Structure formats: structure tokens, C-alpha cells
Amino acid sequence: MRAAFVIGLFVALFSVVLALPTSNSKRGTNGRITFYTGDMLNAPACGGPAPTDEDMICAVPENSGHECGDRINLWHNGKTVTVTVRDKCATCTEPNWFDLSKGAFSKLADLDLGIVDDIVFWKDF
């Protein structure tokens, strides 16, 4: 019984370590996520067709340092999602603010929360 507990604990901790950024990543902490939906998805700043609520996309502030097409990994409470920058967020006032599609947001937290802080994020190079 005790051995099973120790093995289970080791597996859980190891899976968290694997989900965290590697040394060749640009890592940030204290990110914020919100979500946008409906008509707000129309005419993305990066061009192309309007994404859907199910697409794994995000909008970022102009001062974020992220460019259209960048793939950003987001982590919160043991959950990870990878999103692609498809839009700019005019109302996001902090550079570490990611406005996600509903589908992407729901991979990290319940939609009822609306805003989640303390997001770890990284972009692999």
C-alpha cells in the first residue's frame, strides 16, 4: 500500500515537471487569461478566416512581444494548453494577458471564472 502511494506521488510530480518549460524556452509567470467569443472573433488582426470558439487561439496585447502565428503554452493548476496567436487584444492592458477562445480557456479553467491570474506561459524557440 505504501509503495503504491509513493509510486503514484512520483508519477504525479514527474508529469508536472514534464509539462513545465525547458531551458530553451522563454518562460513567464503571473500571466492572465480571459476569453472572447461571438462577433469579437471576426476579422482577426493576423488575417485569415475568423476563428471559432473551439479553435485553440489567443489574442495578445500589442506590447506582449508575441507575433501572429506564435505558439504559446499556458499552464495553470496542472493543466496545459497550446494556443496560436491569431489576434491582437486592444483591451488587454498587461503584456502577459492572453485573451483565449472559449475552447482554449476551458482547457485551463471553468468558463464561469472569466478571468484567471497566475498563469505560467512559455514559447518554445
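(ticket continues) Second input and output from the same batch:
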Amino acid sequence: MLTYNDTEEKAVEKIIASLADNIQLETVQPASTPVLSFPGLEIRQHQRRVLQDGKDINLTRLEYSTLVLLASNPGIVLTRTQIFEAVWNMDSDSCQSSISTVICNLRKKIEPDSKNPTYIKTVLGVGYKFDMRNAGE
């Protein structure tokens, strides 16, 4: 596992932000599928419910929206900026810590082991992706 301190993280985020201006990113939207089902995890969008092994998981609005966005785009790496703009519905240059906090809280609630996530993977220096290949293993 690779870790870095706050100063290093801010430097990496500045580099990524400057690179993002030169990279064309896909526009992502939540899928219209009413139920997203993965091993051990079910998202019932028409009821705004998340079930882990059949048990309801209580999520905040931001956690739920972030999960739906990621799960609706499995395998696609989404930048923190893309997640922020889609979930918060606004532009921001300082979204990095907000996204990290929501992802951390979400992992604590839905991952069997939040320190070794199976659903929400970090793509170092880029963002996050929902990995359905390893989900439930």
C-alpha cells in the first residue's frame, strides 16, 4: 500500500488538476437501471435503498449518490472532480478532501474490510472506480 502525507497529497492533486486540463474526460451519468446488483451488494434506486447481504445500509445523500455514480459506471475510473461535479452538482477547485471523506465513510459502511476494499478501488493519482470483478470475493 502506498501512502503519502498531506503535503505530498496536495502536490499530487495540483499535478493532476493541471493534467486534467489537457485530458479529455468522458461525461458520466448514473444509469437508469432501477436495481444495481453485485455479489453481496444491492442498490435499489427506485427505493433509494442499499442492501449488503440483505441488510439495509444507512447512507447519507452524498454517500448514496457517490455509490450510485460509481456502481453505474463499473470499471470506469472517475476523477475526484468528476465525482464532485456529478454528486454535488457544482464546480469546485477544492473538492479533494470532500470526496476522500465520503469515500472513506462509504467504505466503512459497505466494504467487508474497509482497509482492503473490494468494491471501491482507488486509482492512485487519478480517482476511484467501482470494481465489480473483485466484489464479493
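Agent notes: The chain is about 35% helix and 20% strand. The two ends are 19 Å apart (CA to CA). Closing as not reproducible unless the customer responds.
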